[in-house]
Amino acid sequence: MPVVSDGCGLRATLADWRRAGARVAFVPTMGNLHQGHLDLVHAAAAAADRVVVSIFVNPLQFGPGEDFAAYPRTLEDDLARLEGSACSLVFAPPEAVMYPSGRTGTTRVEVPGLADLLCGASRPGHFAGVTTVVAKLFNLVQPDLAAFGQKDYQQLTIVRRMVADLDFPVEILGVPTRREADGLAMSSRNRYLGAAERRVAPALHGALQAAADALRRGERDFVALQQAGMDNIRSAGMSPEYFEVRRQDDLGTPNGNDRNLVVLAASKLGRARLIDNLLVDLD
Ligand code: PAF
Predict the structure, then answer these.
(1) Which one of 64, 92, 241, 270 is CB 3.0 to 4.6 Å from 55, fit for a cystine?
(2) How far apart are CA 282 and CA 216, in angstroms?
(3) Ligand 1 shell residues, CB under 6 Å
(4) Co-location of 97 and 139 in the same domain
(5) pTM of the model
């Protein structure tokens, strides 16, 4: 698997591809790849001729006391996993390439409002870190399209808003969440779960499913659904952070006439902070 670590190497390969008329797709990651990431590569490859995967554990999106130092860095394993995939090139830059002016001095890209609710409320600055790195990566790779997982639904929504507001000529592809057999959404952070916690973790998906089923049956008391979701998660042994029914397009609070909804939840379980969501289309 070809790997480049600086902008020059990346641009040289991209220029060759562009000359040959190739459509380029991009999959940004922080590594520690699992089947969910390979789904992104697969979806990207279906819509393009070449796929660039970036691997960069982005310090800007971790708050003080979060798991930046502990975040699994598994480059050799990641490259081996990508070997059998449709990935054409890996971009694995060091921090100095991404932030030549340093972590605090770098120019930032922020999406106000959307970045402050749900996960943003408990992780101040997190989404500004995400949009800053994604904007920089888009400028380096200049892809025709980029694939993001629906598991991070708020991130996907924020990236879409950034692309619209800043006129990035990049199509954003949302790829469905890959789950374990018991429903737990795949995540690099699942490795923080001990054996007993791992048995409890699928309850998050279970609570989302119960709310989604109720919405499909016609329930429109969103406050009651949210309270029931929090109670379900708590009684399974987790510490819920939020459980919310929102509109899909802008994550606003829905009214009884909205048809395209998303139920989102975040919960602490031991060392892990789990997030998940389900889309509910009522038409
Ligand atoms: O979803 C992720 O893994 C990260 O937030 C991303 C998009 C690679 C930016 O660092």
Answers:
(1) 92
(2) 6
(3) 28-30, 58, 61, 130, 133-134, 152, 155
(4) yes
(5) 0.98
